[in-house]
Fold each of these.
Amino acid sequence: MSMVDDAEAIERIVPQTRLASLIRAILPYLLAALLAGFLLWWIFLRPAQLAREGAQARADSEIQAGATKAATDALNITVDVRDKRAAIDALTRSNQDAILSAAGAGAPVDPAVYSALHDALCLRAAYQSEPDCAAMRSAGGSIGPAEADTWGPTPDDPGGR
């Protein structure tokens, strides 16, 4: 090789050597900055992040436990209501059987007594949906004032006997 060739080769290498020396000068500071950033994150930010995640996990667990308890309570309430309705239905059937099988159950009932009983029963929530109670619902749900008893003596007047 000639000197000119050597000079041209050096000119081509010089920019690359300058870059290499610049990288060698900056690289330790860059690595130190990266290490310092990592240590700051590891020591200060990561524990706070872990604490937030732990608190969120505990909160999620409490919310889930509350939802489970609420669902259990709702199920228990539903079962209790169903059981009470079944008990009320059984008592109603038992009462109806006792009334219909009582002595004198086949005897005629005075129409005024029957009407008063019917109107009184229609005021109860259990009978509100009965079709023959529709007149009571349309009349505002009251049976009006009691009429005077004209059939016999009052307790204050035993002279009627």
Amino acid sequence: MQLQETVIPDHVLKLFDEVNTLIDVLPLDFRQTLTDYMHLLAWQITENIHDNAPDEHFEAISKKFECARNRVLH
């Protein structure tokens, strides 16, 4: 059996770090979107079809986070 090291792309880790600081106050709809994205990312990593560059899914979740963060902070 061959084991592969699983690496979460740096841009995703950075987003998760930012989200983590506000997760309790973010809207439920964003948290559900984030959960869906995490499932997609896990599947991509498991199937070894992820890329280290941001894709359209990452771009979408980043924009949604920006909007949610702005609503919470302002």
Amino acid sequence: MSVHIKVDAVDQGIARMQRSLDALGGKAAAQAIARALNRSLQAARTEASRQARQAYTAPRAKLFDSISVSRATQSALEGVLEVLGVPGVSLIHFQARPNKPQPPKARPRQGVTARVKRTGTRRVYMGREGGSKPFIMRKKQGGYGVFVRHRGNKFEMLFGPSPVQALQRQDTQEKIMDRVAEVFEPRLRHEIDVLLAGIAGGRS
């Protein structure tokens, strides 16, 4: 599962700085825009991670496989923020209680509980119909998971949602783009000033 966020909504910032960009000339202007856009992309990357952490209780290390940035260049003034994540994250990472195996007599009566969303409530998550109450068990590959038992002694491990889903919401992507706009124009102004100073210094 992935989310692609194209960062090409910076036209207003460029328009407001157009006179200074014209003073730089084509190649230098493109360089300034690319540098500012790439700094904005890094801010967007941080904001995407923050939005997912605010939405779900799983630790950051479990939130994504990666958040990568396709950088803008002088010849391609467009950047893409790509967020990769697995379809689901093991339910044990969503503040499961208990989170280690318990003797049968010590297990909570209702089964293992979890809180998936930070704004949500703690509750028991069940698997497919007909399963037992959820409990903690060691996985074959190591570590623990939340499981239910079905007839025939078949086990089902439970999963929460992929935190990538939080970034698929329109309002979340708008917050990320707002962060891009917030960073882009001041950074573009800085890059223009640096390049203009270099041009002026070369003429002196």
Amino acid sequence: MKMKEMNKMNTKKNRRFCLFPIMLLLLGLLFTGCGFSNKQTVKSEDMQIELPRDFQKSTMADTSWYYKSMNGPEALGIRTKKSDLEKMGFESDSVNDYVTNYIKANEIQGNPVVESKNNYLTFTYSKKVNGTKYSYVYYIFENGDEYWLVSFSCYADVLKEYQKTFDAAAKSVEFVEE
């Protein structure tokens, strides 16, 4: 066999050999990147929400659920029964009353603007804690005889980066039978 013919044969074999790892790589990407969701469903009481997978379950006093991200943002949910609010002397006729009372009770400064979106109310505010400025985004839901407050927090300078993630999580909230 001539040298040219041998080189052509080796080139064809090498192409086939090179295609195998490429195909394995593509299959791996399909199953890890595209095939599985980068979200997780968190269920607490009668509420469920989809959070990014990098949020890990943790604990915080007086919350129904609490998750922290390795990248910094945090998420929490608080379920409050209307009857409990009434026992404490708060008006709870509407979700608007609840939000107004929450802002006052927690001494949230700056008169945050409360907006109505989809099936919830939302507001954002920032404050300094030990010299570091944080932003807090609240989503408040009314479900029968209860209110759910879902809050996200992050460093104030990266809020724009996370706002869509927080909004998508709020839009994923569903109430299910216990």
